[in-house]
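Two records follow; treat each independently.
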Amino acid sequence: MKAGPALALISLALFAATSSPAQTSPQPMHPATAAPPPSSGQEAAQGRTWNYALTLDGDIIPNATSYAAPTVSADRDWLHLEARYNSENLRTGSLWLGYNFRRGKTLVLNVTPILGGVFGRSTGIAPGCEASLTYKKFQLSVSNEYVFDTSHHSGSFYYSWPQATYSPLDWLHVGLVAQRTKAFHTSLGTQRGFLLGVSHKRFHFTTNVFNAGFTSPSYVLEVGYSH
């Protein structure tokens, strides 16, 4: 799928760990805009409702084909469901099932172990994890997985997207980001760079710039909506 010279979009997945099931979505939430922990009554109500998130990533690659990568997720109590396209590899889709955990109030740790089926240009089974650690305006997060290619063993690979962000304002976040992916290749095995993002109500937009100063820079533009 091509992304025009316009904005390419991508979304992140943040992850968390806890000893009891989480009642909120594990989708990335910027520290400054995160809602306070729900009361026990609110938790019970949230456990009976679904939370949804839709993100569209656009990868702009120098001297190569740019592409878009949509992700849709749904969460209810401990259950996490997710679908992706062009994430693990180009022309490749994946379906995921996960279990949400959450711990902490001031220092919030979320973790969602996930298991996915990958199909298309790459075919296989992928265990992974989405996790985040949030303290006030700071957040560390990572989304990673290992794809066991069931067609060709040599096609197995590791995917990772770690990032660290700071939110000086409720609507603004900045930080460092890296990614290791099979969807495109450069002279660097792991892409690294910085990000700048803004949010408004249920929408967010983030620009990720990779490899600036190391090789020809690439860009991942991300727009998302959550409910």
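The next record belongs to a different protein.
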Amino acid sequence: MSTKHDVASVLERETATTIDTWYTRVEAEKDLTNIPLSRKDRCAHLPEMFKDLVFRLRNPLPLGSRALVSEGARNHGALRRDQGYTAAMMVEESRMLQVSIFQTLQLHVEDTDSSVLLLYVMSIADEVDSQLAQAMSSYLTVAHLDAKPIQA
């Protein structure tokens, strides 16, 4: 009989594979690849995002509460703005990330404690959405600053 792992451990162990899955999805989406980025630049935010996600799973918050501030998410939003992404492109990247994370969990469902799996899935969705909201806030702040006239 195999040892059951918590979802945080599975995601921590499978971070690189999940990022690979996400990258493959993104590279197949022409709306996202219209912005030419190297793999390194496209994936730069993900290792920190996964660290934040694993931390959240190991230190749960009540669902729907304000998640922890993620400096990485804020930096990601400003960077994507500078790289020429639209808000819709950022949302699509985030959607693909959730699908990739859930695919990883599906592939390792036998390694997890199924009695709490749904709670973890809800926490993952909440955290990914929270990070997207923080990235979008930063994105919009940069957009707002770009729109202001330059003062001498």
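Discussion point: The chain has a mean pLDDT of 88. How would you locate this feature using only the token line?
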